[in-house]
């Protein structure tokens, strides 16, 4: 399986998925008066490190909200699996589910098969974190092929604060051509 790496500074893919709260959400479009978007891809219910990371995301929510950042977490899990998983987390952000293999590839994610996890029903995405700025442009991208290599959410929030403040007129990192 191959995926294409998303280019920093490019438009984020227009992917819409169902959410546990009902309805659908775009992975790139903030709602409720927010103008930036943080989309976190997690492996799914089978991953205890994902559970920990999503709880850390809860702790970062006040800072992210204060910065005008909407948050959405997404996995390939089915609705019942995602709902059962979130019962452990009491998340303060929307949860999208049903990410497909073509969508994982479009996001440039690493994809693992059922043999890479216990209690896994189908291929799943490895972790990814994407910050989309107010122009719908990919500002920050972080992908990993393992669940234990993820950016600090505290530092992501601090970094967004710098990008929205003192560095607001700086070019997007990684766009030198």
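Q: What amino acid sequence fits the structure above?
A:
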């Amino acid at each position: 399986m191959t995926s294409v790496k998303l280019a920093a500074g490019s438009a984020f893919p227009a992917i819409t998925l169902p959410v546990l709260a009902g309805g659908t959400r775009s992975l790139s479009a903030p709602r409720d008066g927010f103008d930036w978007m943080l989309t976190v891809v997690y492996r799914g219910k089978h991953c205890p490190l994902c559970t920990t990371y999503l709880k850390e995301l809860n702790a970062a929510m006040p800072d992210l909200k204060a910065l005008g950042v909407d948050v959405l977490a997404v996995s390939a899990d089915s609705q019942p699996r995602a709902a059962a998983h979130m019962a452990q987390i009491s998340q303060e952000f929307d949860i999208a589910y049903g990410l497909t293999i073509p969508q994982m590839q479009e996001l440039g994610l690493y994809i693992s098969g059922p043999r890479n996890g216990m209690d896994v029903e189908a291929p799943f995405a490895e972790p990814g974190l994407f910050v989309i700025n107010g122009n719908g442009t990919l500002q920050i991208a972080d992908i990993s092929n393992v669940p234990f290599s993820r950016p600090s959410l505290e530092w992501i929030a601090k970094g967004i604060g710098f990008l929205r403040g003192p560095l607001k007129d700086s070019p997007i990192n990684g766009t030198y051509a």
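Q: And what stands out in the fold?
A: The chain has a mean pLDDT of 93.
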